[in-house]
Amino acid sequence: MLYRALGASGLKVSVVGLGSWLTIGNTLDAGDAGRLVRSAYDRGVNLFDTADVYNDGEGERALGASIRGLPRHHLLLATKCFFPMSGDPNDRGLSRKHVHESLRGSLQRLQTDYVDLYQCHRFDPDTPLLETAMAMDDLIRRGLVLYWGVSQWPAERIAEVVELCRAERLHRPISNQPLYNLLDRSIESAVLPACGRGGLGVLCYSPLAQGVLSGKYRPGAPPPGDSRAADQRANQFIGRYLGEGHLERVRQFVELAARHELTAVQLALAFCLRDDRVGSVLVGARTEQQLAENLAAASVAIDPALQRDLDRIFPA
Q: Which of 116, 150, 152 is nearest to 14 (CA)?
């Protein structure tokens, strides 16, 4: 396993992290989740990402159960808050009240007394940014959170919060977790540069476009029965990637990877990791075999000729 500093911080993250959005606490039962987490840890993964909203808290509960018995000080637990957890008007957003109470719930579900990285799952236009930044700073000073970050924030808000924290002498965010893959390169124009200027490391989620970039979905063919697209519990977001134009580009991509003696999965993850602003790619492996293939991407380098071929198939 390779490790990179997350942004301008001293925190070292495995270049492949294990996410839990649609897997741990959702489509995987407790036994499979525990085996997958332990296998990831044994292979050098130290970053485990979840969120309070994942399956209404079950993602955190399952991850907390899965890490039982592992050395806590070797793990980097990352979770998030923002989305509604009930019908209460204060049980959502990034107000001081919700941030503090959301963390309390996350700590209970994860069965830990601190989280390494606490992330604002989206930007909250209804809460003053200073209030959110001060709430995160408070949690860090109390030792309940070690670092904080954001997820899916636009470039201008990233720049704004970094400058605000510098001016107010608050702990600044060290990370941003955006959607990023070959089929969606929209962060390259503004978000990635803003992260670089602000010292935020990038944690890419959905780097395989929910498995579409693996090549398992073919133009004109129904999805395989054991795939995410065929799973009613996990297919609510995958449709955006299943258009014929996308699938034809993926077909060409699979052939390109094979010519370089790589799997499509390895090349898709290596594409994200080619940028040193990216600290880690978060994968949603469901089996140990998938996990092993994901981890093999850590050693794949992309030369200029291969990058040109990728740009031809997937224009930025």
A: 116
* Interacting residues of 269 by C-beta distance below 8 A, sequence separation 6+: 16, 207, 208, 281, 283, 294, 297, 300
What tokens appear for 241 in the block?
A: 């990637």
- Asked if 282 and 203 touch (Cβ cutoff 8 Å), the reply is yes
Has 118 been annotated as catalytic? no
The domain of 169 spans: 3-211+276-286+294-300
SS3 33: helix
Residue 304: partners with Cβ closer than 8 Å, 6 or more residues away: none
For residue 172, the domain's CATH number is 3.20.20.100
Task: Evaluate if residue 236 carries a pLDDT over 80.
Answer: no
Residue 187 in any domain: the answer is: yes
Residue 4 three-state SS: strand
At 253-299, the pLDDT tens digits run 999 999 999 999 999 999 999 999 999 999 999 999 999 999 999 99
User: What are the angstrom distances between the C-alpha of 221 and each of 52, 91, 97, 235, 238?
Assistant: 36, 43, 49, 17, 15
Helix axes 155-168, 129-141, angle to 10 degrees: 60
What is the C-alpha end-to-end distance of the chain, expressed in Å?
29
Whether the CB-CB separation of 11 and 41 falls below 8 Å is answered with: no
In the set 41, 54, 118, 217, the catalytic residue is 54
Provide CB contacts within 8 A for 121, sequence distance 6+: 51, 53, 80, 81, 82, 83, 151, 152
The whole-angstrom separation of Cα 152 and Cα 136 is: 17
Domain count across the chain: 1
Residues 174-228: pLDDT tens digits? 999 999 999 999 999 999 999 999 999 999 999 999 999 999 988 766 666 555 5
Strands 278-283 and 3-5: unpaired
Give the pLDDT score at 222. 66
240-273 burial, b at 16+ Cβ within 10 Å, e below that, comes to ebbeeebbebbbebbebbeebebbbbbbbbbbbb
